[in-house]
Amino acid sequence: MRTLVMRGKPVADAMRKKIEGKIKAAEKCGVKPALAIITAGKDPASHVYKDRLVKLTESLGASAKVVILPGNASLEQVLFEVRKLNRNRYVHGILPTMPMPRHIDGRAVAAAIAPNKDVDCLNPKNMGEVFSGESTWAPCTPRACMAILKYYGIKPEGKKAVVIGRSNVVGKPVAMLLLKENATVTVCHSRTENLASVLKTSDIIVAAVGAANFVKPDMVKNGAVIVDVGINAVDGGIAGDVDPAAAEKAAAFTPVPGGVGVVSNMMVMECLCRNL
């Protein structure tokens, strides 16, 4: 059996052309799309993510506004910056890098973002619309998972799909998107009993558990489709949530790196342009 490697770059490249077109059209009307990124503290991952988004934003012809706050910034300071950006008519999207420092309530920050400027579906109003099936604007990583499946011609309808992870940013919303595509969805987590037996019956596995090489070969049936959302630092490198040996049993899988993450960043830009 030949395994299909579902690389993210072709998906992102296809999206890039459409987004660049929207940005150019907006500029002809006198509008320069702008993404504001708020970072608090010195978390290395947050700053790497911020830098990559700035580079991508500018490469597409949009502008990036970066707000960097110290690690000891208060919740009130963060909310002040969010509300100021809400009022700024030259800012079209707002993205706080999560997680914020522990003393800052990330839920309060998310709730303060104007729904129409919320590019990663953090505001509870936007998330509620995802869970009720009334919105196509789910968080960027779940939308990236679905975009990859669609690009490579994999239809969830009628398939048994298992999502490992129940976070509000990946696990729960990707389950909702799979349901919307008529898959039969099971959500597993750290307290799921007999996880391996559940996975072995799955046609599609979305791994978003945040543990390096968590899904082993004996947990996957031959011919499954695997979407690996994990990005875990190991020995100076990066590993996904799925053991590479497990991916070899799959009919199709996303590599790490080079898979979902590439598309997820482009999804931020697509959402930035949704109101243009």
How would you describe the overall organization of this protein?
The chain is α/β, with parallel strands linked by helices and 276 residues long. It contains 10 helices and 11 strands. It has helices at residues 8-28, 44-59, 75-87, 106-112, 124-131, 140-151, 171-180, 195-199, 244-247, 260-272; strands spanning 4-5, 34-40, 63-69, 93-96, 160-164, 184-188, 204-207, 225-228, 232-234, 237-239, 252-253. The strands form 3 sheets. A 6-stranded parallel sheet has the order 1-11-8-7-5-6. The protein has a 3-stranded parallel sheet with strand order 3-2-4, sandwiched between helices. Strands 9-10 form a two-stranded antiparallel ribbon.
> How many distinct helices?
10
**Averaged pLDDT, please?**
94
What is the tally of beta strands? Answer: 11
Class from helix and strand fractions = alpha/beta
Helix content: 25-40%
What integer value in Å does the Rg equal?
19 Å
Rounded to the nearest angstrom, the distance between the terminal CA atoms is 45 Å
Shape: globular
